[in-house]
Amino acid sequence: MTGTYLLDYGAGNVRSLVNAVKKLGHDITYVKDPSDILKADKLIFPGVGAFGSAMQSLHAKGYAEPLKQYLSLNKPFMGICVGMQSLFEGSDENPDVPGLGVIPGRVRLFDSTLKAVPHMGWNTARTIQGAERAKGCGLEEGRAYYFVHSFAVPFVEGSQEAKEWCLTTTQYGGEGSGGEVFISSVRRGNIFCTQFHPEKSGFAGVNVLKAFLDGDAAVGAEGDAALIQAATLAPGGGLSVLAPTFVPEPTQDQFTKRIVACLDVRANDQGDLVVTKGDQYDVREQSTDGQEQGDVRNLGKPVELARRYFEEGADEITFLNITSFRNCPLLDLPMLEVLRRTSETVFVPLTIGGGIKDVVDPDGKLHPALEVAGEYFRNGADKVSIGSDAVYAAEKYYALGGRGDGTSAIETIAHAYGSQAVVISVDPKKVYVNSPADAPTHHVIQPAQLGPNGEKYCWYQCTVSGGREGRDMDVRQLVVACQALGAGEILLNSMDQDGMKQGYDLALIQDVRAAISIPVIASSGAGCADHFVEVFEKTGVQAALAAGIFHRREVPLEDVKSTCVKAGIRIRTIDAPLAI
Ligand code: 1PR
């Protein structure tokens, strides 16, 4: 059967891509056999996970040779992320594993000395001046697209890959903060690849997919076809014929801060799954008589709210299943269903948290955390967030003298899906002390306000089970251990600030940021748009999350974004919706 095919090797979330393609009115068939590849009229290769495992899967499944043949025929191909990287000669991620060698050049690790790695968030893709290749790609100058990667192909002016293949460049990091310019998309003939994820890049990204799916043939396809053939058939790959030269314009760092909408989800007393929101983690209304337990606050339906936030311009959406401390069987169907349905209409990254741990089914069958996470990825999640289990993993890490044993949820999931897919949700609570000597084993700071009894110091105690139990670990110890175990991002809540609308806990956030190099999402306490400006300016945090003010429509997302822009903070502009 001809048509559009998807080259998937089962390593992560391709559901959103498939949903976007279908939403655009196209059918897509999974490649099941090597012979399917040459049947395709159009082929999409969304690489997920590590470079080495992607290449090994291509070889193990017998896809590598038909893929090279497909490319040499100059048939329409779209590679995404690792799907793009695989066309190069190799990657420092797995130096012993060669790439397909269609494009000269190597994939390198970002320098994390002065900036957070992975490069995770929204950034623009700047078309190289003089390139005719951008026509018909659906790319828009100045629009932000969603990137998530630790490795990239550096843009080296005058290099073969820059001259012959590079379509756009992107800069990560500015002057004085380890700025690096890399190739963010390539195009030659009918081969078009992006380092960013169009299926996660809002309407701007869907437009790129649309252009590929609706397009006929690329500009300059004939001449390029000969070059591609030469490249794919030459031993060792690599093109030897020079394309016209161009003058690149200076690139600028356009990496944006992210605004995240968070949905705490649980069943209410009637058994319906609702979005709720607590004050300092208490999600029940005050009962009228003050005696009985009030109802669980119901602020809306998860799928509908997520869609609203996507359309209003949220850069990311997080679902937290807040009652996961109760044993939930692997097929926690309501949350899987929420994800499946959300990914049909929401094209920005989705995180799911709550219950990412080893679980035991009622029949006694054990499912490791990796399997639980895999289930969520297959159903539309891009990242999983680990709460309680991360605290236990960190305790074990210190008990072993500062190392992991490879079995924790953080390690196993990061190994299989990449560290960018593992977020740690931290639920710290202030413990006030009179002097650092009162908490000798913990990292103590001076909070902005004195404690209830005039205490000048505090430490942040980590909690588990939704804040129900405090552990003998401070937040710094936790985040340092989690980063070492392979986590890619920290979602930093504060039990004291949660729902209070008094602003983020800046001292906590600064302290955590100073301890680690992975990105931090500030959470808890946003009460107005200026609180976002404050947290970005004073802590340099990469993302800020809010829940209550969005659910109750007290502060529109649009106001948050426009206030940040006015303050000179780089923010992704809200997309004009596409009719899809
Ligand atoms: O321990 O891995 O099963 O994960 C449980 C997850 O559920 C954790 O991520 C934990 O933070 C979350 N959780 C558990 N109980 C509650 C609760 O509220 N009773 N929610 C809870 C935490 C905190 C935030 C909130 C911000 C912003 N919610 O994410 O959205 O504080 O709120 P605001 O803007 O209204 O101030 P595991």
Automatic annotation (TrEMBL):
<feature type="binding site">
    <location>
        <position position="355"/>
    </location>
    <ligand>
        <name>substrate</name>
    </ligand>
</feature>
<dbReference type="InterPro" id="IPR004651">
    <property type="entry name" value="HisF"/>
</dbReference>
<dbReference type="GO" id="GO:0016829">
    <property type="term" value="F:lyase activity"/>
</dbReference>
<feature type="active site" description="For GATase activity">
    <location>
        <position position="81"/>
    </location>
</feature>
<feature type="region of interest" description="PRFAR binding">
    <location>
        <begin position="425"/>
        <end position="427"/>
    </location>
</feature>
<dbReference type="InterPro" id="IPR011060">
    <property type="entry name" value="RibuloseP-bd_barrel"/>
</dbReference>
<keyword id="KW-0456">Lyase</keyword>
<keyword id="KW-0808">Transferase</keyword>
<feature type="region of interest" description="PRFAR binding">
    <location>
        <begin position="547"/>
        <end position="548"/>
    </location>
</feature>
<feature type="active site" description="For GATase activity">
    <location>
        <position position="197"/>
    </location>
</feature>
<feature type="binding site">
    <location>
        <position position="493"/>
    </location>
    <ligand>
        <name>substrate</name>
    </ligand>
</feature>
<comment type="similarity">
    <text>In the C-terminal section; belongs to the HisA/HisF family.</text>
</comment>
<feature type="active site">
    <location>
        <position position="427"/>
    </location>
</feature>
<dbReference type="InterPro" id="IPR010139">
    <property type="entry name" value="Imidazole-glycPsynth_HisH"/>
</dbReference>
<feature type="region of interest" description="PRFAR binding">
    <location>
        <begin position="498"/>
        <end position="499"/>
    </location>
</feature>
<dbReference type="Pfam" id="PF00977">
    <property type="entry name" value="His_biosynth"/>
</dbReference>
<keyword id="KW-0315">Glutamine amidotransferase</keyword>
<feature type="region of interest" description="PRFAR binding">
    <location>
        <begin position="524"/>
        <end position="525"/>
    </location>
</feature>
<dbReference type="InterPro" id="IPR006062">
    <property type="entry name" value="His_biosynth"/>
</dbReference>
<feature type="region of interest" description="PRFAR binding">
    <location>
        <begin position="387"/>
        <end position="388"/>
    </location>
</feature>
<keyword id="KW-0368">Histidine biosynthesis</keyword>
<dbReference type="Pfam" id="PF00117">
    <property type="entry name" value="GATase"/>
</dbReference>
<keyword id="KW-0511">Multifunctional enzyme</keyword>
<dbReference type="InterPro" id="IPR017926">
    <property type="entry name" value="GATASE"/>
</dbReference>
<keyword id="KW-0378">Hydrolase</keyword>
<comment type="pathway">
    <text>Amino-acid biosynthesis; L-histidine biosynthesis; L-histidine from 5-phospho-alpha-D-ribose 1-diphosphate: step 5/9.</text>
</comment>
<protein>
    <recommendedName>
        <fullName>Imidazole glycerol phosphate synthase hisHF</fullName>
        <ecNumber>3.5.1.2</ecNumber>
    </recommendedName>
</protein>
<dbReference type="InterPro" id="IPR029062">
    <property type="entry name" value="Class_I_gatase-like"/>
</dbReference>
<dbReference type="InterPro" id="IPR014640">
    <property type="entry name" value="IGPS_HisHF"/>
</dbReference>
<comment type="similarity">
    <text>Belongs to the HisA/HisF family.</text>
</comment>
<dbReference type="GO" id="GO:0000105">
    <property type="term" value="P:L-histidine biosynthetic process"/>
</dbReference>
<dbReference type="InterPro" id="IPR050064">
    <property type="entry name" value="IGPS_HisA/HisF"/>
</dbReference>
<feature type="domain" description="Glutamine amidotransferase">
    <location>
        <begin position="6"/>
        <end position="202"/>
    </location>
</feature>
<comment type="function">
    <text>IGPS catalyzes the conversion of PRFAR and glutamine to IGP, AICAR and glutamate. The glutaminase domain produces the ammonia necessary for the cyclase domain to produce IGP and AICAR from PRFAR. The ammonia is channeled to the active site of the cyclase domain.</text>
</comment>
<dbReference type="GO" id="GO:0000107">
    <property type="term" value="F:imidazoleglycerol-phosphate synthase activity"/>
</dbReference>
<keyword id="KW-0028">Amino-acid biosynthesis</keyword>
<feature type="active site">
    <location>
        <position position="264"/>
    </location>
</feature>
<dbReference type="InterPro" id="IPR013785">
    <property type="entry name" value="Aldolase_TIM"/>
</dbReference>
<feature type="active site" description="For GATase activity">
    <location>
        <position position="199"/>
    </location>
</feature>
<dbReference type="GO" id="GO:0004359">
    <property type="term" value="F:glutaminase activity"/>
</dbReference>
<feature type="binding site" description="covalent">
    <location>
        <position position="81"/>
    </location>
    <ligand>
        <name>L-glutamine</name>
    </ligand>
</feature>
